[in-house]
Amino acid sequence: MLQSKHRIAGWIRKHNPHICCLQETHLRIKDLHRLKVKGWKQIFQANGQEKKAGVEILIPDKIDFQKRTIKRDPEGHFIILKGRIHQEDANIYAPNIGAPKYIKKILEDFKKDMDSNTIIVRDFNTPLSKMDRSSKQNINKDIVALNNILGEMGFTDIYKALHPKEAKYTFFSNAHGTFSKIDHMKGHKTSLNISKKLKSYQAFSQITRD
């Protein structure tokens, strides 16, 4: 855990992103502020009682961020942070079992908290299209239902919007010998001017999956 924290802190210092979202921190409620990076004092966490799940949003001091509301899952599966920087970040983590149904329920429950400024980021633990699998396996009905509600809410895949013909993977299964993309970044179709954040997101996805 200590080595991982140093690695993440080193990446943040090197790439200097506008916002950093972490999943699977495996911290408990009492483990607040375990990750410390100079110039990054704004840290928002959702942790459970046990060392599993856990999500975190970090915002640098250089960003004039004013928190409006924050909603945390008591088991550390997701955090929704809204603030005054012309955007709202929704950082959602789903467990490995039944991930599409779980995320669909979160979207339905918090639909009123999301608008054209919302960004949904990181580990969905599931591919969302045939292109997200090197095997090109068809997606199941639960994933179709999840994609439908994302579409109804106006969300689209930011990477695919900018690179429609390029497949990128973030996970390798040793058991099946296949690559897949289970980390996703969803933005509203009317608000896709975030190329700098996308670049930071791609780089961080790579180091967290290495």
Automatic annotation (TrEMBL):
EC numbers, comma separated: 3.1.11.2
Site (Transition state stabilizer) residue list: 125
Enzyme class, broadest EC rank: hydrolase
GO molecular function, one term: double-stranded DNA 3'-5' DNA exonuclease activity
Catalytic activity: Exonucleolytic cleavage in the 3'- to 5'-direction to yield nucleoside 5'-phosphates
All copies of domain Endonuclease/exonuclease/phosphatase, residue ranges: 4-184
One of the GO BP terms on file: base-excision repair
Record-listed Mg(2+) binding positions: 24, 123, 125
Cofactor details (free text): Probably binds two magnesium or manganese ions per subunit.
Name of the protein this chain belongs to: exodeoxyribonuclease III
Species of the source: Phyllostomus discolor
